Amino acid sequence: QRMTLSALRGLRPVCSTHLRARMLYVPGKPEQEDAPLPQPISQPPTLSEPPKKRSGMFDVDKRVWPTAASTFLVGSGVGIIIPLLPMFAKEIGISPSQFGIIVSAFGASRLLANFPASWASERYGRRPLMLIGPLFSGAAMMSVSVCSSFAQLFVARFCAGSGGALFMSSAQLFLTDISTPANRARTMAPVYAGFGVGTALGPAIGGMLGSAYGLHAPFVFVGGAMMSAALLNYFTVKETRKPDAIPPGRLDLRAELRNTIGQWRSILSNRSVRSVMGLNTCFWMVHTGFQMTVIPFLLSEQYGFSLFHMGTYFAAMSIINVASSQPFAWLADRLGRKAVMVPGVAIVCGSLLALPYMETAETAVALLATWGLGAAMLGTSPLAYVVDAAPDRERAQAMAMFRSSGDLGLLIGGTSLGALVQSVSLATTTMIASGVLAAALAVFIRNTKNSKPAQQN
What we know:
Elements: H1 2-10, H2 12-22, H3 64-80, H4 85-91, H5 96-124, H6 126-144, H7 150-177, H8 184-213, H9 217-236, H10 253-268, H11 271-301, H12 307-335, H13 337-354, H14 361-378, H15 381-389, H16 395-423, H17 426-447
Helix pairs in contact: 3-7, 3-8, 3-9, 5-6, 5-7, 5-16, 6-7, 6-9, 8-12, 11-15, 11-16, 11-17, 12-13, 12-14, 13-14, 13-15, 13-17, 16-17
């Protein structure tokens, strides 16, 4: 009997399954032999599931890379004319005060064109403006080669800046469309690195072209480079704007203006977005004012840098920017925007305060390299923060406001910090500039929180 009971226990799962199947039998009706048998309940696997794959440092949409290449061409065009424009202006008889207006015309046009460019990109799509912008800038740059008066040069520079605003507005919205909060900073980083490398390497290219072909031919070369960016966009950029983004019906400019002003009010009512824009203005005021005016003068006068050493310095800064932008963007996507922005700005402030006390060229260059790392940490995180915080319908104008805040800092820093160094001293200027930047950072820390992006898969 014990052996029989043991055998029956071994057959218990099979018998129970058979009994459940027999319960389907209804008296008076033929038994359905083909009726499916209920399956036994599956047991959970004993082995643990493999961990989810995390996003890598370069896990971005492949459409980013052609856009980064076109941005590099545009940035190269901007950088090439930096050493040539002062000599060209002198050749056609422009005074120093007029030349200051010529330099500021480019930034002022971008500042004014950011908002209509974002509206047009939202209304008519990203791709048309990514084609029209470089073409317009390229034609304006080519026209500089035939300018012979202050008015002509001013109009050409103003048009070139407007074309740049058209391109950057549509390119940033394009990057926003093809990214998610989990990889947004990494998606924008290659484009910003491309523009930064182009503007840094451009002066060396411009010097070689100017010495070989004169002052007029490089402007034609710059125009061709920008038009080639438009050609690249023509073959690689597809429209990403949602078809239902614009309501049907005829265009009503008054209604569009009222809607845009309403969006501005809503954006500026967000305390965290205001804090990010204020920090962006102060950062670009300090960064541009020192990197483009004060530091070149300091390296040449105090440390005896030649033109070759100066070019080597800017090339090294470009290498630091390219090598570190993507890792810091990855950290911003993983840890949150604020977690990367705060130490980056703090490094810039500390480097700025220590700058007057560097006694040798080696220590000064090491300090400036540290400054470059801090600036790279800031990188695309502020823009990604604004894009994450803005609703979809206000995103285009929020990005326009953010760009305008940076352009405003460019104008203030480029015109004021150099004059401030001449009026007081380098140490006093660095204390004032670092104090302004530190105050903006304190406001940012107080008014924002480190909301991490969406979890990565």
